[in-house]
Design a protein that fits this description.
9 helices, six-stranded parallel sheet, 25% strand, alpha/beta, 279 residues, five-stranded mixed sheet, elongated, single chain
């Protein structure tokens, strides 16, 4: 299992797997970077790996392929093409999603601002989903039960609607760690009648998120986080949403934190330690 993107899938990982001729069960969790090559799909998995494993009787996978396309003649598969590639019975149910990124966003990113540096990506995974980690979920998510996922990374350059996180809470019922990467302001803020509940969330990372998401998650009438202990956030966002650590609407959530991670240097104002009594 690798949570980091790798560029050695073709050169190192495939040759390694081909030597495992006696393998009876294979579990793959991979995030792959390719240049001028198509996505990893069912046909490629069979031709490159599975055909070399005659004893294999169980195959579970979660594979994300991000493509850097410099050759305009390279034709990438559609989501329908990817789905058709899994017609072999040994795969069972498979979910897939193909996403193409707007050209204007490609030049604005760098190695850490996923997904901006890529032209497109494809995510494929076995159903029912069996992993504890789900990476690179975005605005296109339409639902589906992921009751094994404890760590979720949400990444998009398009703004999220307020209701989007209600869908996340309902479909990831045991979520413990949530990472949000989106610097765009939120759409339709404060539309929920009742708070969105993340019953098991322990860690929330908003370091790379717009201040609107601090407002949504830390104000108790918008979101209920009964188990939250650790928060990663920019000081500017934290000071804004807490009104310089005087806002009663965020006091309940902040008062339970045992760890607050802020990368910038700052001088705590007089109300800071009272606002976070457990730090």
């Amino acid at each position: 299992m690798s949570c980091l993107r790798t560029v050695v899938y073709d050169d190192l990982i495939i040759p390694l797997l081909r030597r495992m001729i006696n393998l009876e069960e294979l579990i793959l969790f991979l995030s792959i970077i390719r240049t001028d090559s198509n996505y990893v799909d069912g046909t490629e998995l069979y031709d490159s790996i599975l055909i070399y494993m005659p004893r294999l009787n169980k195959f579970t996978f979660n594979i994300d392929t991000a493509v850097i396309k410099t050759n305009p003649e390279i034709a990438l598969s559609s989501n329908e093409d990817v789905q058709r590639s899994f017609n072999r019975r040994e795969y069972g149910p498979v979910a897939s999603h193909v996403e193409t990124f707007p050209r204007e966003n490609e030049s604005t990113g760098h190695a850490y601002s996923l997904p901006y540096e890529f032209n497109s990506r494809c995510h494929i995974y076995s159903l029912p989903y069996q992993f504890e980690c789900f990476l690179f979920l975005n605005n296109s998510f339409q639902g589906g039960m992921f009751d094994t996922v404890q760590s979720l990374r949400i990444t998009d350059f398009r703004p999220f609607e307020h209701n989007f996180f209600k869908i996340i809470a309902e479909n990831f019922p045991v979520l413990k760690r949530l990472y949000i990467f989106n610097n765009e302001p939120q759409i339709d803020k404060q539309q929920s009648i009742t708070p969105i509940v993340f019953s098991h969330l322990i860690l929330l990372n908003l370091n790379c998120a717009h201040a609107d998401y601090a407002e949504q998650f830390l104000i108790d009438k918008h979101c209920h986080l009964p188990c939250l202990l650790k928060l990663y956030i920019r000081y500017e966002s934290l000071a804004l949403v807490t009104n310089n650590f005087t806002n009663d609407a965020t006091r309940s959530t902040c008062g339970k934190l045992t760890c607050l991670c802020i990368n910038e240097l700052f001088v705590p104002p007089k109300d800071f330690h009272e606002y976070f009594p457990l730090l």
